[in-house]
Amino acid sequence: MTKSAAPETKPETKPSEPVKAAAAPPTGDKPAAAAPAPAAPAPEAKPAAAAAKLATPAAKPAAPAAKPAAPAAKPAPKPEPWDSPLVAALKAQYGSGIRESSIYVGQKYLVVDSTIAYEILLRMRDDERFDYLVDITAVHYPKRETQFDLIYILYSFHNNERIRIKTQIKDGETLRSAFAIWPTANWLEREVFDMFGISFTEHPELKRILMPEDWKGNPLRKDYAILQQDQEWVKINLGIESGQ
Q1: What rounded mean pLDDT belongs to the chain?
Q2: In which residue ranges of the chain is CATH 3.30.460.80 found?
Q3: Cβ pair 185, 178 in contact under 8 A
Q4: What CA dihedral angle connects 196, 199, 200 and 203, to 10 degrees?
Q5: pTM for this structure?
Q6: CATH number given to 80-210
Q7: What sign for the dihedral angle of Cα 109, 115, 121, 123?
């Protein structure tokens, strides 16, 4: 009878021992130096231009350009003497009655005494061919003894020339109307009468032309307040209080 083989016995294995820690260095030896920590990365260098910009303070904005100086004011024009055969003839005839003969900014004018003003106007039409009376106006100087300048503007179609004849009168004095010389003086003298209160003798119908007949005062006199209204006239004729 055959015997079965005995089972093969395996060597007994021991459980693995834990790994022992490394032996401590001998007492007298110094510990090994620790490895240095890695250095921090150097900051990235900025471009030179950017660095210079940061280092240099920002420049201030340029001051606005100064305004150019105003040009010097031109001197006011002044009258210049006017000498001509006409002026010489008038001075020879009327003497001191011709008070001034001048040219101002190209405009010829004569200043004559009020007593010969009508004669001068008549001569200017008949002898010098100033056949058109352009205008009659006045200027008020309330502080002057002869408060009013009266100005006649004449034109010659034949000579294509203008001339001014001026005269001065006191407040309340009258002048002879130029209507007989130039019919256009009719309405022109009425306007001077209305606005300044200057009267003209021998005028065909001297009355107001702009303001109502019963209006009080003369609006272009310098002693007439610029906002003055005839309160009574407004109330009576318009039935309202003046807005001034």
Answers
A1: 83
A2: 80-210
A3: yes
A4: 100
A5: 0.69
A6: 3.30.460.80
A7: negative
